[in-house]
Amino acid sequence: MIRLYTDALNVGYDGHLIVKNLSIEIPDKQITTIIGPNGCGKSTLLKAITRIISHDSGAVVLDGKNISKENTKWLAKKMAILPQTPESAGGLTVGELVSYGRFPYQKGFGRLTKKDVEVIDWALEVTGISDFKYRPVDELSGGQRQRVWIAMALAQETEMIFLDEPTTYLDMAHQLEVLELLQKLNQEQERTIIMVLHDLNQAARFADYMIALKEGNIVKAGNCEEVITHRVLKSVFQIDAEIGRDPRTNKPMCITYNLLKGEHKNEETLDPSRTVVHAVH
């Protein structure tokens, strides 16, 4: 089922087009990961879909409605986004920042209801930061602050959550905790998760659907088997990758790679056998 899609979307800055004539469908109730080199338009795409920035032409359609014509509260009940570099939360405690996720549901003077408090406490608990509720956000480490922002997105209780590199600043264990939490939200609550990830193997491990971008265009979109291939990674990242199997998930993974140089960058004929090699043990 497709509830969210873009139609010939063009997005740019200062006359420079970043996302180019992009038409893409986001599978509902699945995890979609977006991969691509720096500057290819990943973050721009997320911001345009969630209306943080406007688009030059085309449309973003959710539940049959052009989101550019809908009011902010309607959209905020449908989508939450964790940007790559969240704004400063100077002077706020953890609990206060997470409470901002309840904005779409507040009326009148914006006082928190019993339901609001319950949702805030739940978001703090599932992200492992309940003990920090009354601490200033500025006093936390980078990894702890990242979990606070994720808790705020969860407190928004949207059907769709967009995250731009949510594992930034986190060590390996906390990266896995965050990604497993998002997977749990997807599986148990049927949240649609769309996230940008730099780590190709994490992107493949947790994704139902993947989108590979380069220079504002889609190189390949599909399941992990279709995207994590020698050919696609060569085209997107200019690397000569060896693709194997994750022994725990059986999903494709990039074992190792070399940078492509000279004429090899532009070769079009590739040996299909390079797509699947021996599994990692």
TrEMBL record:
<keyword id="KW-0406">Ion transport</keyword>
<keyword id="KW-0067">ATP-binding</keyword>
<keyword id="KW-0410">Iron transport</keyword>
<dbReference type="InterPro" id="IPR003439">
    <property type="entry name" value="ABC_transporter-like_ATP-bd"/>
</dbReference>
<dbReference type="InterPro" id="IPR051535">
    <property type="entry name" value="Siderophore_ABC-ATPase"/>
</dbReference>
<dbReference type="InterPro" id="IPR003593">
    <property type="entry name" value="AAA+_ATPase"/>
</dbReference>
<dbReference type="GO" id="GO:0005524">
    <property type="term" value="F:ATP binding"/>
</dbReference>
<dbReference type="Pfam" id="PF00005">
    <property type="entry name" value="ABC_tran"/>
</dbReference>
<feature type="domain" description="ABC transporter">
    <location>
        <begin position="4"/>
        <end position="240"/>
    </location>
</feature>
<dbReference type="InterPro" id="IPR027417">
    <property type="entry name" value="P-loop_NTPase"/>
</dbReference>
<protein>
    <submittedName>
        <fullName>Iron complex transport system ATP-binding protein</fullName>
    </submittedName>
</protein>
<dbReference type="InterPro" id="IPR017871">
    <property type="entry name" value="ABC_transporter-like_CS"/>
</dbReference>
<keyword id="KW-0813">Transport</keyword>
<keyword id="KW-1003">Cell membrane</keyword>
<keyword id="KW-0472">Membrane</keyword>
<keyword id="KW-0547">Nucleotide-binding</keyword>
<keyword id="KW-0408">Iron</keyword>
